Amino acid sequence: MILAGALFLLTSIGHIAPSFSSYLGLAASGERQSAHSRPGQAYEALYSIKAGLEGEVYPVFANYDSLQKQSNRRFGVVTVTISNPTPVLLRRCISVHVAGWSDSEVRDVQLEAGARQTLVFAPSFLPRFYQNREIIAATAGVSVSDVSGRTVYTTTVPLRLRSAEDIFWGKDFEYAPFIASWVTPHEPLVEGMLSRAKEYMADHRLPGYEDWKNVTGQERETYQEAKAIYTALQEAGLSYVKSSLTLGGHEEYSERVRMPRASLHDSSANCIDAAVMYASLFENLGMDPKVIIIPGHAYVGVRVAEGSSRFLLIDAALTGRAKFEAAVASAERGMAGHKPSATTQIVISQARAAGIYPMP
């Protein structure tokens, strides 16, 4: 797992907003700049085009941006900076699309003389984008027209589309909160596994959090529900398979993480795969999970009761080879052996509040 040996400086979801601008600073590859004028046209703007992260587009970031208001976007499939060096007001219509992979996104811009504006484009991608399992070449097209509809500027930018299972952790793992996009509570295979897990409950129910009169009662039930899920996965044959290799740039910051549907279908998961799979199962029940990353390993936790500050921690990677009680003890020992500054804890409900939703 690529997490080995790292110190994870991010300790809360609240740290993600300042880091967005640093991502944009990295996205310089594929930049095109041009002042394009047609015959008989006196004035035209300057255009600077940037594509992805040094030309690579990670589906997790593209999905995040596509769900944001245009004014709130921080990542970009394509970023267009338009400058007006002329003495007159310019009105332009800019269209961006990734041929064969996305819809077109169209933006109107009005630029005063001497002004400059940066527009972040995140066109809606087709389903095949989120089914892609390997790095693949693509082309982004940029077209600009004036108020009469006449094309005044066009260009294309090469892209490399990363696998939908590739995560870019970033330097010092600053983008770790985006692991919440791998938590997919409504995946049919997740719901199917819960149907199996309820059979390991004494009353054949998985109620999530109930209206207990005391926290102790809910803690006890949360423990039993977590154990039932663990047992169902163990009986289904879940076992550890590393499989974290990914291809493309930024090898030291990127990793392949299986989506829960893949882990459940193949009965294979490494520690981070298993953590997001368990988190998906807990979130489906309306419970509050979190993913915990320590140097070289990952755990999953679930809040023991609504409003409680305590989490039941599980070393999910042990599912195929140890009892539930041993997996809980292993996680507790692991956390006790690391300072808080060496851990990253992503509470999924906080990630959702920050606009990080499941991958399509």
Report what the structure shows.
The protein is α+β, with helices and mostly antiparallel strands and 360 residues long. The protein folds into 2 domains: 31-161, Immunoglobulin-like; 166-353. The protein is 25% helix and 26% strand. The protein is built from 8 helices and 17 strands. A 5-stranded mixed β-sheet has the order 3-9-8-5-6. The chain has a 4-stranded antiparallel β-sheet with strand order 1-2-4-7, with no helix packed on it. Strands 16-15-14-17 form a 4-stranded antiparallel β-sheet, sandwiched between helices. A hairpin with a 2-residue loop joins β14 and β15. α3 (188-197) crosses α6 and α5 (260-266) crosses α6 (271-284). The longest helix is centred in the middle third of the chain and has 21 residues, at 215-235. Mean pLDDT is 89; it is low at 2-40.
Shape: elongated
Distance between the termini: 25 Å
Please bin the fraction of helical residues: 25-40%
| Content of β-strand | 25-35%
- Uncertain runs with pLDDT below 50, 5 residues or more? 2-40
**How are helices and strands ordered from N to C?**
HEEEHEEEEEEEHHEEHEHEEEHEH
Content-based structural category: alpha+beta
Q: Roughly what is the average pLDDT, rounded to an integer?
A: 89
